[in-house]
From TrEMBL:
It comes from the Bacteria. This is Uncharacterized protein. It comes from Dictyobacter halimunensis.
Length: 225
């Protein structure tokens, strides 16, 4: 329901605050960049992730709160790329859900709404009812999250030193990647072949995981594909 929604209405109270699942769902909604509207039933403080939101105090009868909620809702005709994606991901037809995963891969390739798209893919990979759909989503996740996991301010320790390489982006950030991940990736690492230093090297198009800008790296992927 969160994936397919245009906005989230949170009814917050002392009782709500005790439900751990509410916190998990709120974080998921935030990762999807959902519009969250908070209605408070009592004076229970909002959780830290919601601290910047301006709640609407609700008093019985609750009819009056609709006048305050309505202006915060998106127009019925509005639909951005992410909203279109999540609706497609929740479609009843398997082919449409798989098409949504391919669309998500294309958005990640463009570094478009990365965090929200990854959250959606995680949800599909964990909860879709069809194995082939889950596997397809996980394949994209692996391609986009494994290289990023190798980023640090210094080369990772206790790993094959020949498999690790660092690249500096135009903003000065150094990203370290593992050839075992990026040389196999087919979604987030488009590659060509380049003559570089008189040797055929793979031209890998990566993303700096500090600032997200595109990095072009020339790497010898022989033995790691």
């Amino acid at each position: 329901m969160i994936i397919g929604s245009a906005a989230i209405i949170l009814i917050w109270s002392q009782a709500t605050a005790r439900i751990a699942e509410v916190g998990r769902l709120l974080l998921f909604a935030q990762r999807l960049r959902k519009n969250i509207i908070v209605l408070t039933l009592d004076s229970t403080p909002l959780p830290t992730p919601m601290a910047t939101l301006k709640p609407i105090a609700v008093h019985r009868p609750c009819d009056h709160c609709m006048d305050q909620i309505a202006p915060l809702l998106p127009p019925a005709s509005s639909q951005d790329a992410l909203q279109a994606l999540v609706e497609r991901a929740a479609h009843e037809y398997i082919r449409e859900r798989k098409a949504a995963i391919e669309q998500a891969a294309a958005m990640l390739q463009r570094n478009e709404q990365r965090e929200a798209v990854l959250a959606l893919l995680e949800q599909i990979a964990q909860h879709d009812t069809i194995t082939s759909v889950r596997d397809k989503a996980q394949e994209i996740l692996n391609a986009y999250t494994q290289p990023a996991a190798q980023l640090s301010t210094s080369p990772p320790q206790n790993m094959d030193p020949n498999a690790i390489f660092g690249v500096r982006c135009k903003n000065g950030h150094v990203s370290y990647f593992n050839k075992r991940s990026v040389c196999k990736a087919t979604y987030d690492v488009p590659r060509g072949m380049s003559q570089h230093d008189s040797k055929n090297l793979d031209e890998l198009i990566l993303s700096c995981t500090t600032c997200g800008v595109t990095i072009v790296a020339y790497v010898d992927c022989e033995g790691y594909k």
